[in-house]
Amino acid sequence: MSELRIALIAEGPTDYEVINAALRAILRQPFIITMLQPEATKPEFGGGWGGVLKWCYQASQSGCLSLDTYPPLSGFDLVIIHVDADVASKSYTDCGSEVAALALAKQWVSLPCAVPCPPPLPTVEALEHCITGWLGSMAMGAKAALCMPSKSSGTWLAAACFSSEHTILQGGECDLGLENRLSTLKLNERIKKTAVQYRAKAPLVTKNWEKIKADCPIASRFETLVRSCISLSRGPC
């Protein structure tokens, strides 16, 4: 069986490590994952959720009806667009005045759009409408899946590394500060938000994916979306 080709549009390199590890648990087929955003040849987009927004907006200007027919994605079986759910608590002005003006002109879903949590799902759904708005009239298509860990991909990493009773996981998917608190744990537990440290812990995400889904139901939602996309493009995964 040939390798699946996966495109990733993400906030940054630590998210890549977590998502890549999650996919190794979800998919039985071998795959090659290519990070299209952030991308070194397009520094004008920058990183973070603002970079994802700009990538989506650029795609929307192509005139294509969906991501399935967008030429830069033609060689991929699966496209993952990642934004952490904490973005629902942000503002377009956080990305600068030009983005704020664009959001107003295009009548994008307003930010912040967070809903009281728990449960985390209503906020994730509100943010989903926001992201699809960045694509304008361009549809997601059959091979694109949204990945929106609540409140961050660091929550999935924490669930992989620590018991469900650990203090870091209290509040879990509703804790805006969890990812930052990972870097302040006692020395033998501390995980700084760097690609090197996330990569070192990433095998635990693959190994403990079932536990992550139990602690973080939004992870199950991501798995379902991925499996659905692959089934449509390549058959059962």
Structure, described:
This protein is α/β, with parallel strands linked by helices. The chain has one domain (4-234). Helix content is 43%, strand content 9%. It is built from nine helices and four strands; from the N terminus they run βαβαβααβααααα. A four-stranded parallel sheet has the order 2-1-3-4. Strand 1, helix 1 (13-26) and strand 2 form a beta-alpha-beta unit. Helix 1 packs across helix 5 (153-161) and helix 5 (153-161) crosses helix 8. The longest helix has 18 residues, at 217-234. It is globular and about 50 Å long. The mean pLDDT is 95.
The biggest beta sheet reads: 4 strands, parallel
Query: Could you name the ranges where pLDDT drops below 50 across 5 or more consecutive residues?
Result: none
Helix/strand-derived category reads alpha/beta
**Structure summary, number of beta strands:** 4
Overall number of structural domains: 1
Quote the average pLDDT. 95
Task: Estimate the strand proportion.
Answer: 5-15%
Q: Given the structure, what is the number of helices?
A: 9
Gyration radius (Cα, Å) is: 17 Å
List keywords for this structure.
237 residues; single chain; 43% helix; alpha/beta; four-stranded parallel beta sheet; 4 strands
Structure in a nutshell:
The chain has 237 residues and is an alpha/beta fold.
Question: What layout of secondary structure does this protein have?
Answer:
Layout: E1 4-9, H1 13-26, E2 31-37, H2 48-60, E3 78-82, H3 97-106, H4 121-134, E4 144-147, H5 153-161, H6 178-182, H7 195-207, H8 209-215, H9 217-234
Parallel strand pairs: 1-2, 1-3, 3-4
Helix pairs in contact: 1-5, 1-7, 5-7, 5-8, 8-9
